[in-house]
């Protein structure tokens, strides 16, 4: 029998933590191994509990979710932990930085329980989670503050079609939506996405979105 996915919940609001714990703990394939109210505790508990995924708030006391994510999943971390950021869109202007810090995905706090569970399973499986309905709004809202960075790989390595797929990813389209837009198969889109990530040295779709905005490729 497959071991359940070990989940650590980090949120400074007790009611949110309790709600998440109830929803997650009711699933036979998920196991809540711990809860905490700030980022520093999340980092410390992760070292002791070895969760498969941390469900992370961003705005918290002591150590915010961005820095906690960087310490858990950022560049250079020897044994990174997968992080799913759960945020309030209208209040949280730091989600872009959380994605840069190493988060594997994000959801809004008002997402339905089924979407939260899907997000946890998706990120824990090694895939990235970007809600197509909010990606463009959430990242694009701060695109004016994002400038192309010299330390990002050169996108000239991409073919015109790969560049087109990357732009669609950055604008929040799922693989199925990209396939429909470009009139190609879902499997072909998956191949393009894989090639894009490999050529640019990116980990997942989250990093692809960040990359595209930093290079000014998103519309």
From TrEMBL:
This is Two component transcriptional regulator, LuxR family. The modification 4-aspartylphosphate is found at residue 57. The lineage of its organism: Bacteria, Bacillati, Actinomycetota, Actinomycetes, Glycomycetales. The keyword rRNA processing does not apply. GO terms for biological process: phosphorelay signal transduction system; regulation of DNA-templated transcription. Pfam families: GerE (PF00196), Response_reg (PF00072). One of its GO terms (molecular function) is DNA binding. Residues 6-124 form the Response regulatory domain. Keywords: DNA-binding, Phosphoprotein, Transcription, Transcription regulation. The keyword Transmembrane does not apply. Residues 151-216 form the HTH luxR-type domain. Gene3D superfamilies: 3.40.50.2300.
């Amino acid at each position: 029998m497959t071991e359940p996915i070990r989940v650590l919940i980090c949120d400074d609001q007790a009611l949110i933590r309790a709600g998440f714990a109830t929803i997650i703990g009711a699933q036979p394939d998920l196991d809540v191994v711990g809860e905490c109210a700030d980022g520093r505790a999340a980092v410390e508990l992760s070292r002791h509990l070895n969760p498969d995924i941390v469900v992370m708030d961003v705005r918290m006391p002591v150590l915010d979710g961005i820095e906690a994510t960087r310490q858990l999943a950022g560049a250079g971390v020897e044994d990174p932990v997968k992080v799913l950021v759960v945020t309030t869109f209208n209040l949280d202007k730091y989600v872009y930085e959380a994605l840069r810090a190493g988060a594997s995905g994000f959801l809004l706090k008002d997402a339905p329980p089924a979407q939260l569970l899907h997000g946890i399973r998706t990120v824990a499986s090694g895939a990235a989670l970007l809600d197509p309905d909010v990606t463009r709004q959430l990242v694009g809202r701060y695109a004016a503050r994002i400038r192309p960075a010299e330390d990002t790989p050169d996108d000239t390595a991409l073919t015109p079609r790969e560049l087109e797929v990357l732009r669609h990813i950055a604008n929040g389209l799922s693989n199925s939506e990209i396939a429909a837009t470009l009139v190609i198969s879902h499997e072909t889109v998956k191949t393009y996405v894989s090639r894009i990530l490999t050529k640019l040295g990116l980990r997942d779709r989250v990093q692809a979105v960040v990359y595209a905005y930093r290079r000014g490729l998103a519309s």
